[in-house]
Write a structure and sequence with these properties.
Layout lengths: L2 H38 L12 H25 L4 H7 L2 E3 L7 H17 L5 E5 L7 E4 L7 E5 H6 L2 H16 L2 H34 L7 H45 L2 H12 L45 H8 L17 H9 L19 H6 L6 H13 L2 H6 L6 H9 L4 H11 L5 H15 L6 H13 L3 H16 L3 E2 L1 H14 L13 H5 L2 H15 L3 H15 L16 H10 L5 H15 L7 H13 L15 H4 L5 E2 L2
Helix pairs in contact: 1-2, 1-7, 1-8, 1-25, 2-7, 4-6, 4-11, 4-13, 6-8, 6-9, 7-8, 9-10, 15-17, 15-18, 15-19, 18-20, 19-20, 20-26, 22-23, 22-24, 22-25, 23-25, 25-26
Length: 662
């Protein structure tokens, strides 16, 4: 799958959604106009025509106000991201530090897949009262994404099956389906408001009928209520058809992506077979398919892993038939004439699955970065993780010190992990950093950061960005004011010595994107007209910073820059390498921000140019890898970790030439 072309398809799906919504709205206005005409304007009278401009204006205006108001209200409610959806479905937030065996298995699976895909770890929610097997991913962008699963999903599925379901939901995040699904949820809510309004009017008419006014004024209200109710049911039907038209093919794509990600078709196929009853329930009393009992299941039906509604025709179903999905994953699958007996599910088996949550491989730490990643392979992995990515993710988690992994999950320790990653190795410089932040943060957090600094400095190269990803769910749950104070302290620590190293530059960009006040999307001024027409200066700035910092020798830096810039300008004069004195951290940030709105295919070319510049000397070092991944993250292009030809320690990276802050 080509991530960049998939993003273009996602944008086209948004326009398709708007078109279908507009057509549905037109059908509802026409239907309500005809009903009101028959009830109130004498359309049944042969002497009177069927066109009443005044009535049409009232019907159209009222429908647009009601539907538009309902859609706007829902869209505003969904601006909080996936958490608002999880709460509406009765979800309970999962503590990443949980000791519960079933939840621990879920956390482990999601963390390894997040690191493998290059995404920040999403928030996790469990629908405790739902005993069917189902899951969903929701959010406007990866910065506020959540994954929710039912309690039945945790109890009924083994680890491979759970991993297949989670991989399916990750593909929705990577493919841009989440954003479309929330827009679909917001727009179609307005169509359902007609039914709500009709029910209210019918109750009002009932009050008039049996009240003191006994019958006076009840007939018009009753008639309008019936008209709205009938039109509302038509709106519900149209909403289901639109959801089916938008969602069905995306489920096939997500299934295929999950198989590619895990290289294990039996996982997701097994989950689908348990839902359909082709495999026995592991807990017999919970064998309830994939039905969601929440009263909000209707409006969120297109988000689920499998059909969450109990009765729905194939025409209106948001998901393809389960048997068809299974046969696309496992061609030749045959349904047994008699379902096998229920499996036994014991606490010992659950503990065994939990213990294998990290699924460590036999690969040694020394082999973690042993093979060379070519530029083309690096860019091909953007938004397109595979089984190799998952293997690397597992290895990173297996090599992560337990002390740091546990700290990333605790509210008071996760901010300390961030600060510790930025603390200077030299004691004098570190004391100066601490003096700058001691009045802004709790002393307990600063003490924790000082204690964590030593184990963090011993981390092997390439493991600090994954550690940052592990902290994200805990950091996102901090109050907005505390997050802003933490980001301010991060800037103070970075700017203390007037220089910004590779990792500091990467870390600041990632934190601003995922912890800023916009919750994953930075508010930026519009780029200048010049940068829209000719981004050559921004390209030159990014490639110059990458070349100058990654290569101490000027000749090597010039060669690296040339390898990258020639890809962007293959048949014309290319900009020259900018001198080191012009390669400032803020200039780099400004260049990236100015290029944020270039087309997706141009972002692909730029990332490929950066990968070529970084590998011009035959190796992609840890600092260069981190910077490319941070740049990809800034463009909304998740890049999985890749195997490098060197594996520098933090001390090695300090030898690189840092950027000046100003």
């Amino acid at each position: 799958m080509d991530f960049f072309r998939q993003q273009e398809r996602a944008r086209r799906s948004t326009w398709r959604l708007i078109l279908l919504f507009t057509l549905a709205l037109g059908v509802l206005i026409a239907g309500l106009y005809l009903l009101c005409g028959f009830l109130f304007s004498g359309f049944l009278d042969p002497d009177q025509g069927a066109w009443d401009p005044l009535l049409f204006a009232w019907v159209a205006g009222g429908t647009l106000t009601l539907v538009g108001g309902g859609s706007l209200h829902k869209i505003v409610e969904l601006r909080a991201g996936g958490e608002s959806v999880a709460r509406s479905l009765g979800g309970v937030r999962v503590d990443p530090a949980t000791k519960n065996e079933e939840l621990r298995k879920l956390v482990n699976v999601v963390e390894e897949m997040s690191i493998a895909s290059g995404l920040p770890v999403p928030g996790l929610w469990v629908m405790e009262s739902e005993q069917g097997i189902n899951a969903f991913a929701a959010g406007l962008h990866p910065g506020n994404a959540v994954i929710g699963v039912t309690r039945g999903c945790l109890r009924q599925l083994n680890r491979d099956e759970l991993q297949g379901v989670i991989a399916h939901e990750f593909s929705h995040i990577l493919n841009g389906d989440m954003r479309i699904n929330l827009r679909l949820m917001g727009l179609l809510h307005g169509l359902l408001c007609l039914t709500i309004a009709g029910s209210i009017l019918l109750r009002t008419a009932g009050g008039h009928r049996y009240g003191r006014s006994r019958g006076r004024g009840a007939a018009p209200i009753l008639g309008l209520g019936l008209a709205l109710l009938v039109t509302g049911y038509l709106g519900t039907l149209l909403a289901r058809l639109i959801k089916a038209a938008i969602s069905r093919q995306r489920e096939f794509l997500a299934d295929a992506s999950a198989v590619q990600f895990t290289r294990n078709s039996t996982g997701i196929a097994g989950a689908l077979q348990r839902i359909a009853g082709f495999l026995p329930p592991r807990v017999p009393k919970l064998g309830k398919g994939s039905v969601i009992r929440s009263p909000r299941a209707e409006e969120a039906s297109h988000l689920f892993f499998s059909n969450g509604l109990s009765r729905l025709s194939n025409l209106m179903a948001t998901h393809p038939p389960i048997l068809e999905r299974i046969r696309r994953i496992q061609p030749g699958f045959q349904v047994l004439a008699k379902a096998p007996a229920a499996e036994k599910h014991t606490p010992q088996s659950a503990a065994s699955e939990m213990a294998t949550g990290f699924a460590p491989s036999a690969t040694t730490t020394q082999e973690l970065a042993a093979s060379v990643a070519t530029p083309e392979k690096v860019v091909a992995q953007v938004g397109n993780p595979d089984a190799e990515s998952l293997t690397i993710g597992r290895e990173i988690l297996a090599c992560m010190p337990e002390e740091l992994h546990a700290a990333a999950h605790h509210a008071h320790a996760a901010p300390a992990v961030l600060l510790a990653m930025l603390m200077h190795r030299r004691p004098v410089a570190r004391r100066a950093q601490i003096r700058r932040i001691q009045d802004r943060l709790d002393a307990k957090i600063i003490r924790e950061a000082i204690q964590l600094a030593s184990p963090i400095q011993t981390l092997r190269g390439g493991m600090r960005l994954p550690l940052l990803d592990l902290c994200m769910p805990t950091l996102r749950n901090m109050p907005s004011e505390d997050r802003q104070d933490l980001l301010a302290c991060v800037d103070l620590l970075i700017d203390e010595d007037g220089e910004v190293g590779f990792f500091e530059l990467c870390m600041r960009r990632i934190l601003r994107r995922h912890l800023g006040v916009t919750g994953g999307r930075i508010s930026r001024p519009e780029p200048s007209a010049q940068s829209k027409q000719d981004p050559s200066y921004q390209y030159a700035m990014i490639l110059s910073c990458l070349a100058q910092v990654g290569h101490a020798d000027t000749a090597a830096a010039r060669l690296a820059f040339a390898d990258g810039i020639q890809l962007l300008y293959p048949r014309q004069a290319t900009p020259g390498l900018l001198p080191l004195k012009d390669c400032r951290a803020r200039a780099f940030d400004a260049a990236v921000d100015a290029l944020d709105r270039i087309p997706d295919l141009e972002k692909r070319r730029l990332l490929l140019a950066c990968a070529r510049a970084a590998s011009s000397d035959g190796i992609i070092e840890t600092g260069e890898s981190d910077l490319i991944r941070a740049l990809a993250d800034s463009f909304g292009c998740p890049l999985p970790p890749f195997r490098m030809s060197t594996n520098l320690t933090n001390a090695d990276q300090e030898k690189a030439e840092p950027l000046k802050t100003q």
